[in-house]
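Hello Y.,

Per our agreement to keep a running log of every chain we model this quarter, I'm adding this entry. I've kept the format consistent with earlier entries: sequence first, then predicted structure.
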Amino acid sequence: ANDEVMPQTEEAINHDKAAGVCIVVAINKMDLQGADLERIKGDLAAKDLTPEDWGGNIQMVPVSALQGDGVDQLLEAVILESELLELKAHYEGQAQGVVIESELDKFRGAVATLLIQNGTLKVGDIVVCGSTVGKVKSIINSDGSKLKSAEPSYAVEILGLSNVPDAGETFQVVKNDKEAREIAAFRENKIKDRRVLKQRDESLGNIFESMGQSDKKVLNVILKSDVAGTSEAIVAALADIGNDDASIKIVASGVGGISESDANLALATESIILGFNVRSDSASKKIIEGEDLVLSYHSIIYELIDEVKARLSGLLDPIVKEEIVGIAVVLEVFNSPKFGQVAGCMVDEGSILKNKPVRVLRDDVVIHQGELDSLRRFKDDVGEVKSGTECGIGIKNYKDILPGDKVEVFDRKEEVQSI
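Predicted structure for the entry above:
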């Protein structure tokens, strides 16, 4: 309430509109001195979110999370939206829903956060999440309390899964272990088939991409993060980085600490290892240090992306640009017993430098490229002759210079490419 509509809010609005969902706006920090409710409503109205009291259809509720003001009204607003949409769920029967997030806890093992959409989840239920199965050992509510059962609309953590499921996977309760294993095995086979097809497509794609692009640079990356949702977001962000000259390949990504197998994979594939809110164990650390592998830890996604961009830019060959330093016009040509052929010149532009490469131009066409053998001003050897000054120029291993030719001195500069 004391601020304005920030880019993150705009991004949230765009996501909501793209998903076609209802929007309820909570305007927080109404307890602060600079709170301006009407200004915020105006800013939101400019983003096509018109408040109800301005004739629109968007509920906007002023709240103070610190003092608890407006929270009940906010809940009522959400409930009203759900009633208008006639959202209903079956409380009876086996629970089903979606995995919101998942992580590998050092002490508790695989932990999944589930949103229950139908049915009631109970301790002891056998759950299938994607290709992962398990028996629910514990149900933990959002306030940290343990539950014996959870009804539709509950978001709860469960313990007891054999592996970490992917965020976004659906889950369902089944009757027994046999049914769970059959469903999980079927899904696992489907995943393997998709993986094989993807690898085949990538292999074919790499063959076609490599035609005429043998010098394309590829940065191999192994990513480990604390939760599945974060890993998914980082992989998607990294996929957008790169150009025709350099690209990123995600060799592997997963949830949990950096293990010995991750280090060995990085060694075999010449990959860098990125850890997001995770650390390497002692076995992997020994390999990483012994083989001098690249390992970096991050806790902010934007910093991770910036580092990858910098490393990818470092793979690119520098761009070599030429800059003309000076041009001299040949007036006379002399043959010196000591210096060989010497061109008497007038410096027309810039400066003639002895230690820079040169080109000889005839009728503005390059006929020779080489380096200076001598640069003299009267009888003195000099390193530089500036514009408007006469000089004698000798070109190494070239004896075909004529009056009217131009001697062009240039410099090469390398510029680092960026992604």
